[in-house]
Specification:
The complex is a heterodimer. In chain A, the strands form 5 sheets. In chain A, strands 1, 4, 5, 6, 9, 15, 16 and 19 form an 8-stranded mixed sheet that branches. A 5-stranded mixed sheet of chain A has the order 12-11-13-10-14, with helices on both faces. Chain A starts with 10 loop residues before the first helix and ends with a helix. By secondary structure, chain A is α/β, with parallel strands linked by helices. In chain A, a hairpin with a 2-residue loop joins strand 7 and strand 8. Chain B is mainly α. Chain B has a domain at 57-214: MetI-like fold, CATH 1.10.3720. Chain B has helices spanning 15-36, 47-54, 56-89, 95-103, 110-125, 132-158, 161-169, 174-185, 187-203, 205-210, 218-227, 231-266. Chain B is globular, with a radius of gyration of 23 Å. The model of chain B is unreliable at 255-267 (pLDDT under 50). The chains are: A alpha/beta, B mainly alpha.
Chain lengths: 512, 267
């Protein structure tokens, strides 16, 4: 269902990019002129990251405040809604990308989109490169009924997006959140103890040698490595009780001093030897088939993994490392190259963000995608009802625990309104991955955008980790290699002799 | 009688391919060269080249790729030669249909084949991660074996049987006849088989990824440079790989040309 491939771009894609770069010289892309009643909107989003409709009737989600079902695709519904609401025909061209880096390369090569939805660090990169159009003032007008985004965004998420800054500008000026989550470890509780799984050091734990996987992705790997090497500091009482804990935590987790990068490299080299693999999308399947016992996952994927495993009668749990967890966002941003100064386009783009933030649509997308929306619904209880519908205990459950989601759904900090009465095991399972508890969130840290220079150093560090170092070559391998080379050269020279025969054969034919 | 005038010459038939060549081969090459010899600011530089040859990690990757490719080629050869030999000696009406059995796996999508191989290897080895290099070699062998069998089979089947008869008539034993006649004469097939296996085996990292080899080979290294927006370094590695392939191809061809001319002089 969800595949957030963070796969590096393939050689073929690279070749294709080179070709398309050339062709863009010949066929320059002309910006289409928009007429008042027609507006074209080019959207690029992650693969399988929006409801495409076509649900079966038995998939109908019945909630107290309404029923939700995806009949048509979200895109078609938007076009219809936009015409009904504003009397303008929106033609949406919807395409997808596989990784943030793919999207960035596509944009660099001249692909034009109006609205894209990469992860927060890529959006930061786009902001620093001055490629984005800020969201309009009207978009933040809470009195407008149709502004579902600003009326519905979770106060907790809103606080983060307003509080985080880059180049003196708040993230929320440019980026409207879509989905969010944290990182953690999905593990098989029969073979791995919760204690072992609740730390990044599981990646180098010799007990699980060749039984854990890690993401094949430099940022995720770096975060885990920093968490592991700073474990003692991060878990010390002094640090945890510091009044500025969250600020300091963020600083530590985003430490890019040369010493830390070197330490991370050493650590990741150990991970390489100890881990089963660096995986892009096989981790879930390998958990189910039992090849691995624990793997590093994004919470949205973790929900999916646990769902899938349950279908195969395998119970998996989700643990959030004690040291720190990475909170991430995928968010909508408008591109200068697409929108420019076209107000009609911008209006349509912002209306699209609002449309996917409408509570019933949020439920549809969450059901289809499995990730957690940044929208809590504001006055509309639908989204909380959906969470309760998913994870609330059955009436006849023997034992239940109260799981508070006030931090996410409520602006009132002391409120006791948003409590899911769940079965106890859900606290280690889907519920904890879909809506982490406030305890987990307290040790979450944003991973900021590293500047070009740091990025290059960290990327090179990652390449070093993955490469075979020539100095590690044992003597016997050198001897074997040289021997093989000699044999090959011999074969090439030897091959020449046979040519005489073929020449002779040809001549014979000529004589005949 | 008026001649029917065709408005274009035979040369015109080559135009579609020439256009294709220009757009998809020549032009990307130009871009590749441009990126390989410039830095981020667009200035001409040799840094990417010297950088490649002074970094123990990139050199190590080259070596590792060589090792994987060499081992895979050797295993392919060891399996393919006897197979092709006995196939061609079969007294069957239609050898091609027998050959088909060996080529049939190629008709199945390769990622599916590797996924199946992954499961089989897991059953045998228990844990794939314990045997990464061996798995890489097995994967490559599995994927490229038909490319080795086919050319060898072709050369051996087309060998002139009378040469073997002559060898036997003149007193050579079976093994002598094989080593002194059949084997040398099948070398062109072996060489083209080696070329078909060795070069792709150096870069086909999808096989390695799917079999969980966490060490980069040349293909993955290029990919990682591009993912890190370092198009310059990535292009340079692609170019170096191109040069290596070029040298190998020339080595293969050069021999035959020289032989031809020398053979002509002998007559």
């Amino acid at each position: 269902m969800i595949k957030l491939y963070m796969r590096r771009i393939s050689l073929f894609t690279a070749a294709f990019l080179v070709v398309s770069l050339f062709s863009s010289f010949i066929f320059p892309v002309y910006a289409s002129s928009s007429e008042p009643e027609h507006v074209k909107l080019r959207i690029c989003n992650w693969e399988e990251y929006i409801d495409i409709g076509g649900w079966d009737e038995d998939e109908l989600i019945e909630l107290d405040d309404g029923e939700v079902i995806g009949e048509n695709s979200m895109i078609e519904d938007f076009e219809e809604w936009y015409y009904e609401t504003y009397g303008i025909i929106a033609d949406v061209e919807y395409s997808t990308f596989g990784t943030n880096e793919d999207l960035y390369n596509m944009l660099t090569l001249g692909d034009v989109y109006d609205l894209v939805c990469p992860s927060e660090y890529m959006n930061m990169k786009l902001i620093t490169e001055d490629r984005l159009v800020p969201l309009s003032e009207e978009f933040f007008d809470e009195s407008n009924e149709n502004n579902y985004y600003i009326r519905g965004i979770s106060p907790y998420i809103r606080n983060i997006l307003d509080g985080q800054e880059i180049n003196g500008q708040a993230w929320s000026e440019y980026m409207a959140g879509y989905m969010w989550g944290i990182t953690g470890i999905v593990y098989n509780p029969e073979m791995v103890s919760e204690e072992d799984a609740s730390t990044w050091t599981i990646l180098t734990n010799p007990e699980y040698r060749h039984k854990v996987t890690i993401k094949d992705n430099v940022r995720d790997a770096y975060f885990a490595a920093v968490g592991a090497i700073k474990r003692d500091l991060l878990l010390s009482e002094d640090f945890k009780n510091d009044p500025d804990y969250s600020v300091k935590l963020e600083a530590e987790m985003n430490d890019t001093t040369p010493e830390t990068i070197q330490a991370a490299q050493d650590y990741l080299q150990r991970v390489r030897d100890n881990a089963y693999s660096f995986e892009t999308d096989s981790g879930k399947a390998d958990m189910v088939t039992g090849k691995v016992l624990a793997n590093y996952q994004w919470s949205g994927d973790a929900v999916y993994s646990m769902d899938q495993a349950e279908e195969d009668d395998l119970i998996l749990n989700f643990a959030v490392p004690e040291e720190s967890t990475n909170i991430y966002f995928d968010g909508w941003v408008m591109l200068k190259s697409g929108i420019g100064t076209d107000k009609a386009k911008q209006h349509a783009a912002e209306a699209f963000i609002n449309f996917v933030s409408r509570p019933d649509n949020v439920v549809r997308n969450m059901y289809f995608v499995g990730y957690t929306s940044v929208i809590s619904g504001g006055d509309d209880p639908l989204i909380f009802e959906y969470a309760d519908w998913c994870y609330g205990a059955e009436e006849d459950a023997e034992e239940t625990v109260d799981y508070s989601l006030d931090y996410f759904f409520s602006e009132d900090k002391d409120g006791e309104e948003y409590i899911i009465s769940a079965e106890p095991e859900q606290l280690d399972r889907q519920l904890a991955a879909q809506y982490p508890s406030i305890d987990m969130m307290e040790r979450s840290s944003i991973m900021t955008y590293f500047n070009e220079e740091k990025n290059e150093v960290i990327n090179n560090m990652w390449i070093k980790v993955r490469c075979y170092n020539i100095y590690n070559t044992p003597v016997w391998a050198w001897i074997a290699g040289i021997a093989a080379a000699v044999v090959l050269i011999y074969l090439f020279i030897h091959g020449r002799r046979t040519k005489k025969y073929y020449k002779y054969k040809n001549d014979q034919k000529l004589i005949q | 009688m008026p001649m029917l005038k065709i408005p274009f010459t035979r040369k015109a038939l080559a135009i579609p391919y020439a256009v294709f060549l220009l757009l998809f081969v020549a032009a990307p090459l130009v871009v590749l060269f441009y990126y390989a010899f410039t830095n981020g600011k667009g200035q001409f530089t040799f840094d990417n080249l010297t950088g490649f040859f002074s970094d123990p990690n990139t050199l190590g990757t080259l070596l590792y790729s060589f090792a994987v490719a060499l081992a895979a080629t050797a295993v392919c050869l060891l399996i393919a030669y006897p197979t092709a030999y006995f196939l061609s000696k079969l007294h069957l009406g239609n050898k091609t249909s027998v050959l088909l059995i060996f080529i049939l796996p190629m008709w199945i999508n390769f990622s599916l084949r590797i996924t199946a191989l992954k499961e089989i290897l897991t059953m045998i080895e228990g844990n794939l991660a314990d045997f990464q290099f061996i798995n890489a070699v097995i994967g490559m062998t599995y994927d490229f074996l038909p490319f080795m069998i086919l050319p060898i089979f072709n050369t051996i089947s087309k060998l002139d049987g009378s040469l073997l008869e002559a060898a036997r008539d003149l007193g050579a034993t079976r093994s002598q006849a094989f080593f002194r006649v059949t084997l040398p004469l099948s070398m062109p097939g072996v060489i083209s088989g080696v070329m078909m296996v060795f070069l792709p085996a150096m870069t086909n990292y999808v096989v390695l990824d799917m079999l969980y080899n966490s060490t980069y080979i040349m293909g993955s290294l290029i990919g990682s440079y591009f993912a890190a927006y370092n198009w310059h370094g990535g292009s340079m590695i692609a170019l170096i790989l191109l040069a290596i392939i070029g040298i190998f191809t020339l080595l293969g061809q050069n021999g035959s040309e020289q032989e031809d001319s020398r053979g002509g002089a002998l007559l």
